[in-house]
Amino acid sequence: MIEPLQKHDKNGVPYTRFPDNQNILVTLDALSDAAIVDRCKLAKGTEQFVPIECVIHMLRRGLRTNNTALTNPLFTQFMERLRRVIPLREGQESQYRVQAYEQVQDRLTGLFAKESTEYQERLDFLEIRFEGALARMLQDARKKASKERHRKAPLIDEETGEIDPQVEQAAGSFNPFDPENISEESYRWALDEAMEELPTTQKRIIEMIRNDVLIDSQDPNVQTISKTLGISEKTVRNQRDKAIVAMKALVNRGEN
Q1: Ramachandran sector of residue 228 (left: φ over 0; alpha: ψ -120 to 50; beta: rest)
Q2: Cβ pair 191, 255 in contact under 8 A
Q3: Measured between alpha carbons, how far is 8 from 116 in angstroms, rounded to an integer?
Q4: Exposure check for the chain: N or C terminus, fewer CB within 10 A?
């Protein structure tokens, strides 16, 4: 028997699946697995078309009972419909839109994988109002993709090799080893992760600065970063500045 599915929105207002979908599920419930699969394959516009919400319900039922006769073809059908709803566009300008779509597909695939062993409430919302639930998931994914795009925005002018003035200004007088921040364990974790993402030369420079090694010195007996790496003082300072700009962005990402 197909029980009505009811949830509550963020304001506590109850809502349930469409009556037509409830009736379709009652009809599907009386069919064999093969007949269910055949019905779910019918194209939109045909008299016995099965909405995607109903496909999700039958797929979940198959997952909970480990019924591969349902799960394998219905998952394929679900993914085909999903791709039609959120087609993967191509082109550099839309790469982060594509990234958002792929995140949603991965998220849904993960939810279905978990459904076979543990009830996934998030799938209830997709089963009741697929388009609305999908829109919210896409919105969240686009926000993450947008943050990723800004995080990966070029720090260096490709033509001049100089730090972007706006990024440099944003970094300000950031001191990655500020004693007040270093005292916090969460900051130290974020800082270590940020240093690991630096290019090798920049990482070595920052590590030596952390150990109070001078960048350069007039005294030939003093070991310096410039001498150790065999690069000029100007190059050391330029690489240091680039590293600090990148580290601030990476540490702030960790805070978010």
Answers
A1: alpha
A2: no
A3: 24
A4: N
Residues paired with residue 7 on neighbouring β-strands, in sequence order: 15
Whether pLDDT at 16 is above 80: yes
Strands 6-8, 14-16: parallel, antiparallel or unpaired by DSSP?
A: antiparallel
DSSP 139-170: HHHHHHHHHHHHHTS-SB-TTT-PBPHHHHHH
Name the residue with tokens 């909970």: 64
Q: How confident is the model at residue 250 (pLDDT cuts 50, 70, 90)?
A: confident
- Rounded to whole angstroms, the Cα distance separating 112 from 71 reads 10
pLDDT tens readout for residues 109-151: 999 999 988 999 889 989 998 888 888 888 777 777 665 554 5
| Residue 83 CA from chain centroid, whole number | 18
pLDDT at 256: 43
Return d(Cα 100, Cα 220) in angstroms, integer. 55
Quote the CA–CA distance of 192 and 203 in Å, as a whole number: 10
What does the alpha-carbon distance between residue 210 and residue 212 come to, in Å, rounded to a whole number? 5
The alpha helices in 160-232, defined as continuous H runs, are: 165-171, 179-182, 185-196, 200-210, 225-229
Contacts with 131 (C-beta within 8 Å, 6 or more apart), sequence order: 85
Residue 107 class from Cβ within 10 Å (0-12 exposed, 13-18 middle, 19+ buried)? middle
For 141, phi then psi, to 5°, come to: -65, -40
Tokens of 236: 């050391």
